[in-house]
Description:
Pfam families: Rce1-like (PF02517). This protein is mostly helical. The chain has one domain. The protein contains 12 helices and 2 strands; from the N terminus they run αββααααααααααα. The protein has helices at about 10-30, 45-60, 85-100, 105-135, 140-150, 155-160, 165-190, 190-210, 220-225, 230-235, 240-245, 245-250; strands at about 35-40, 45. Helix 7 runs parallel beside helix 10.
Amino acid sequence: xxxxxxxxxxxxxxxxxxxxxxxxxxxxxxxxxxxxxxxxxxxxxxxxxxxxxxxxxxxxxxxxxxxxxxxxxxxxxxxxxxxxxxxxxxxxxxxxxxxxxxxxxxxxxxxxxxxxxxxxxxxxxxxxxxxxxxxxxxxxxxxxxxxxxxxxxxxxxxxxxxxxxxxxxxxxxxxxxxxxxxxxxxxxxxxxxxxxxxxxxxxxxxxxxxxxxxxxxxxxxxxxxxxxxxxxxxxxxxxxxxxxxxxxxxx
Length: 251
């Protein structure tokens, strides 16, 4: 497959449109016909998420691997930058474990779903879209713009289910966390740490919500709780830090 050079923003937006169709339409249609997932030994694998990841892996071949972050981190030391969101994830997991974890089958299905979801979103927003935006804008502007897209990505899904409050909350939360994940993408020069962190974060948070322990947090209170994370992300993207980064990390 021929790789695209030069301004790749238009291509990345077309891929975003295709990805959204898979997530919004395919997922809804599969749910309507009663076939939303594969069953693999009792583990449920969402079809729409799997198709989205396969689609994005194929589309990423149009870009240089460094542009989309499909390379190793620039150093082992750069991985230490995930300490703060990692601490959040550990706290969520401990709270969920304290109030009771789900069955092994359900926990395994959730692990697969959250991992596919994390890979899909990171490949799209911090990989392909990030590469397209970086062909025209600075790392900081790219972070803001990709964050807006990431925030509104799943809002139509919540509208479909009539859950407006959840949709607004997830839009805000998606935007805030996108700033953090973009900062990690830039500072490590790789997409892999963000995929792993996103998967762990989503898994632990989902376990917490299922445990019932998350119900005492209102949506606004939870958003307020995670505000330090995008602030930390902006700290990682300060000019002094970016000035010392090699091109592969910034681009």
